[in-house]
Amino acid sequence: MVVGIGADGWAGLPVDAQKEIAAAEVLMGSVRQLALVPDTGAERIAWPSPLLPALRGLLAEHRDRTVCVLASGDPMFHGIGTTLARILGPGRVRVLPHPSSVSLACARLGWPVEDTTVVSLVGRPPDLLNRILQPARRAVVLSADAGTPRRIAELLVAKGYGGSAMTVLQRLGGPDERITTGHASSRWPDLDPLNVVAVEFRADAGVVPLSSVAGLPDEAFEHDGQLTKREVRAVTMSRLAPRPGELLWDVGAGAGSIGIEWMRADPACRAVAVESRPERAARIRRNAAALGVPGLEVVTGSAPAALAGLQRPDAIFIGGGCTADGMVETCVNALSPGGRLVVNAVTVESEAVVAAWHARLGGDLLRIAVHRAGPVGGYTAWHPAMPVTIWTAVRE
Predict the structure, then answer these.
(1) What angle do the packed helices 52-61 and 80-88 form, to 10 degrees?
(2) Is the N end or the C end of the chain the one with fewer CB atoms within 10 Å?
(3) Which CATH number does the domain 218-394 belong to among 3.40.47.40, 3.30.200.210, 3.90.930.1, 3.40.50.150?
(4) Rounded to two decimals, what is the model's pTM?
């Protein structure tokens, strides 16, 4: 049994939740949560740190006893309930939820919950917010500690969103609830560690917001020239067709633009960027953080050898190095059934490899030629970029 509890403690629990807690032989939860309920005679176990490595052992140790786990708010919303359900399997966990901090925050502010973006910074870097920086967007951020509001404000100021309205809601639902308002550019001291932050994003004058659609401007990425250019990147992403929860290998990642755009498509999308040069690998990490996907995994090494041991992907992009011995074959064999392989070729040699594999496996061949207008003397003329051949194949 998992019981959600709010800052109002025992008095705020419905009768059925109180009965479940009273009937338990073992109570598990954080020190703060355990302190919110009266002594029922149950053995009390405070969560160790780190929790996840010890959780299976704790559950096994008390498997023959009646266990009740206390959780903050809704246990299935960024809470311990989801972890327990994943470990124990479907149908093994019963949950009695309490209103989540997001529901309470939206109720205080008059915001529709369904129109509010939620980001958890519990155990995660503030860089996650870079993915959702859009004027007029509303977000509720689940804080990690007392300093989270200050770190959010510092990030927003650095990104040109200093005028964003911030509301810090502390100890929501409790008798000592407090609400503090201001702007990102305001001075934010450390506040109560039990807080959530509501943000209405507002871009400062002159700031051009980034689109959430694939095809970010090339200048959004730090790079040394090894970058899949904007127009080609947009078409490439349409061929890769990211779906929530899927994993991409970005092989020969360069600046990491494909893996980054893949992860920006949905919060559940995952990617591994494989890059042989350490300086480029470091640049990929910086780009990923700056564009709101710090969870991008970066593997430094030469493919295909560097691909060994990686989790099986749903899609693979080869942006460089398709002529390396065994590269395409390794990627084709690594794909899950129904997985997509997309290869971009710009040289005669790489086009020859693509043509041979297309003859063998079929798929779709596309050539893109992009021309950009630019000055020629006092006039304007078209300047061609190198044409790119894109091969897309789906593993049966």
Answers:
(1) 60
(2) C
(3) 3.40.50.150
(4) 0.91
